[in-house]
Amino acid sequence: MELELPPVIHENYHLLVSAVALLFGIVSLYGLRSNLKTRRKSKEIWRKSSNNSGNDGLQSPETDGSTDVIIVGAGVAGAALACTLAKDGRRVHVIERDLTEPDRIVGELLQPGGYLKLIELGLEDCVDGIEAQQVFGYAIYMNGKNTKLSYPLEKFDSDISGRSFHNGRFIQRMREKAATLPKVKLEQGTVTSLLEKEGTVQGVCYKTKDGQTLTAYAPLTIVCDGCFSNLRRSLCKPKVEVPSCFVGLVLENIDLPYANHGHVILADPSPILFYPISNTEVRCLVDVPGQKVPSISNGEMANYLKTVVAPQIPPELYDAFVAAVDKGNIRTMPNRSMPADPQPTPGALLMGDAFNMRHPLTGGGMTVALSDIVLLRDLLRPLRNLNDAPMLCHYLESFYTLRKASHLADSGVPNSVGHLMGWLPVSSTINTLAGALYKVFCASPDPARKEMRNACFDYLSLGGIYSEGPISLLSGLNPRPLILFLHFFAVAIYGVGRLLIPFPTPKRLWLGARLIMGASGIIFPIIRSEGVRPMFFPVTVPAYYRTPRVA
C-alpha cells in the first residue's frame, strides 16, 4: 500500500524541493571552502612521517619491541579497543588512571547500532550479568501529549535492540575480558606526557600507582582518556563547549509508562530523560542549560527539582521522582561538545571522548566509539608492521576521513562491514543529530523556535516514514547524513506549511521565513564543524582512496 503525504506537505512540495536545492548549493560552497584546509593537513602529516621514517623508524632504541600499541585509558573506548586489537594479534599495553569501577550518570544507553558494533567486535557478552535492559525505542512527551517511536528492528533477530545499564558495570566487564587476553597488559597508572622525537610520538611517560615514573614505547599510541583528557591538546585543536549540565537521579521500583523505552519530556527550559538501568532502577537526567546549576549543598537544587521540574513530570512518575529528590543522592555532570579536529601526529591517534564529543541527549557516544573501533581494526589488519611510519600515517589519516565518509553499503546487510567501501558515517551523522535535536528540543521565547519545536513533535507523531526515518538515524541503524538533512528541513517545511493554513498573512509569512532561517542557523554550523566534504562528498578527499580493501 502506498503511503500518502499529509496535505500540508503535499501542498508545499515544490517549496520543499526548492529549499533543498538552495540548501545543497550552500553545502557545496562550504565544501569548496574546506578543500584548502584538508589539503594542508594531508601535506603536513606526510611531511612529518617522511622526515621521521629513516633508519630509526618509529620504534625507540630503548624498547625491546614487546609492545605494538599503547592505549591510554580503559573506559568504553579503551577497553573495547584493547580486546579488539589483541584478538587481531597485536601486543597491547593499556594504562588506566583508576581501575576501580567508575560511577557515572552518563554513558548508560547503547543504541541498537552500537550493539551491532559490539557484536561485530565479539564483545556482546559484556552486557550479560549486569542487569542490562533491552530498549526498543522512545516515548516523547510534550504539553500533555505523547507519542511512541519504535526502533526499526523488523529485519533483525529478537536479541537486537538498544541496551541500558550502569556504565561502571559495563566498563568493568570489558576490562575483565581484556585482562584475560594473553596479549593485553592492563596497568594502573597516570600518563603525564607523550614521548616525541622529531615530531613522531614514540610512547608515553607515566606514573604507576606506587608513584614510580616509567616510560613505555610502541609504534602506535592511542589516546582514549575520556572527556577530561590532558593529552588531547598535542593531538588536536580542542574547541570544547558546555551547552548544559545533567542533574542525575535514580528512581527505584517504578515502572515506566512504556516498558523498555526511553522517555523524553520536552520540558521548559530543556528536556528531561528517563530510562531503565537495572531490574529495579530508572535513571532520570534533568538537563539544565548553561554551565551553572543550583547548589546541592544548600538545598537550592532540591527546591528547583520540586518546584520547576516535578510539575512537568508525567503523573505516573511524579511520586517516584519526588522520593528520589528527597533521598538526596543528586549528581551533576557538565555536557560537553567538541567537534573532531585532529592535528597530524605520526605515531599517535585520538579516540573516544578525548577526540570527539556531542551532547548526550541522543545517547550516541558509545555507538560512535564502537563504530570507530571497528573501522580502525579493519584499517590496521593489512598493516602487520606498525613500524612503517609513512604507511601507518596514511592509514590513520584515512581513519579520520572514513569515520565521516558517506558511501552506501552494498552488502545488503544492515551495518555490515564486509569491506570499507561499505562504510557509513556514524560519527558525523550522530554528532549532527545530537547538536541539532538538542537545540530544537529546548524551550525558547522566540516564536520561530517555538514553532520549530512544536512542528518537530507533531512531525514525529505522524508515524510511518515521518517517525521511522528520524528514529533510524537516532538508533545508529541508518547513519546517512542526507537522510538527516532531508528530515530536518522536512520538519521546517512542515512547520511553515502549518503557518500558511488557512491564510498566509504577512505576519505568518515572516514567521515562516524566520523558522527556515532558524533551522539553517542550527544545522549548518554543526555540519560545517563536522566537515562538509567527508560527510557529503567523500570521493573528493584523497584519503578516501588510500584505504585497504578487507575481504
UniProtKB/TrEMBL annotation:
One of its GO terms (molecular function) is flavin adenine dinucleotide binding. The chain crosses the membrane at residues 12-32, 482-503, 509-527. Residues 218-407, 426-510 form the Squalene epoxidase domain. Its EC number is 1.14.14.17. Residues 68-98 form the FAD dependent oxidoreductase domain. Pathway: Terpene metabolism; lanosterol biosynthesis; lanosterol from farnesyl diphosphate: step 2/3. One of its GO terms (biological process) is response to hormone. Its cofactor is FAD. It is found in: Membrane. The keyword Transcription regulation does not apply. Catalyzes the stereospecific oxidation of squalene to (S)-2,3-epoxysqualene, and is considered to be a rate-limiting enzyme in steroid biosynthesis. Belongs to the squalene monooxygenase family. This is Squalene monooxygenase.
